[in-house]
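Hey team,

Filing this mostly as a record. A colleague (T.K.) asked me to run one chain through the structure pipeline before their review meeting, and I want the input and output archived in the tracker in case anyone asks later how it was produced. No errors, nothing strange. Just documentation.

Input sequence:
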Amino acid sequence: MASEKPVADNSTAENLTAKDRMTRREAMLQLLRLTAAGAGTAAAAVWLAKHSELPGSTAAANVRRNHTVEANAALPEMVVVQGDGPNATDPRALVRRAFDDLGGVGRFIAHGDVVVLKPNIAWDRTPEQAATTNPELVAEVVKQCIQAGAKQVIVTDVSCNEAERCFRRSGIAAAARAEGADVILPDPARFREVDLGGEVLQNWQVFEPFLLADKVINLPIAKHHALTGATLGFKNWYGILGGERNRLHQQIHQSLVDLAAFMLPTLTLLDCYRVLLRNGPTGGNLEDVALHKTLVAGTDPVAVDAYAAKTYWNLDAEAMPYLKLAERRGLGQSDFAQVRTKFSQIA
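Output structure:
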């Protein structure tokens, strides 16, 4: 793989003023109240949509947004940061180096942005069990975004287990609040039916903070998954949804791509500090966890997932069909060796 030394990027695309952003959010709220006629869809999408509707829900609004930043050919598209040596135990240092290698946090976060961070807080597990994102990684991303001038940083997820216990036991709620984040638990009153515009996923209930953000950062953890082989960045987007999302497993690879195409995140930071190698995604046995002290980050979410799948489970793109589907949808490169990559070590 090519290894490149990034340079500072002062050519970030112009950002909207605070007044303009408020206008956008007001317009988004208005869109969420509008009704829209539904178009005919494929049989599978109709089936999924029917099973996602809540009683009394209004027709879906089209609120798809692009949270990505302008590409920069002088910077890597993916960075792999690893703690090297017995003293390299600080997960926060991995975040700081990853942002530096990618051109600085200011490339991704502008003054006045409302930023939503999406860690994996799905399960009632401790950080050592590696079923949820490392809380120190989340806290440092919060800190970096606030220092870059973010108006608000929201940390949220739609948990599988009871949300309050998941947020507390994972350590994420306390760590994020300590750095100034607004930690929002899923609230049934704040889901909105939207048109995801996917090939399989059409109308679905989405948690409102994800619909109103200026920037969205994906913070998954690398884990084994019985169905897909591994659960990484793409699978983490299940946590924006309400409804009976377990039904999506019937067409899991297509639904993963639909969700990623809907979210179009600003950045993916994949937590490989501890990796759940077996019995995922819930885990529980510390013998299934390996300490790798690594963070894989990038603007190409397909390459990030492909790299981790190969590195920790020896899974090629052919074994994970969503990677090839995502590449054909224009979401990134499934052959991670073809993307600009930088490797860093922290002593």
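Quick notes for T.K.: The domain at 57-346 is CATH 3.40.50.11440 (Rossmann fold). The longest strand covers residues 267-276.
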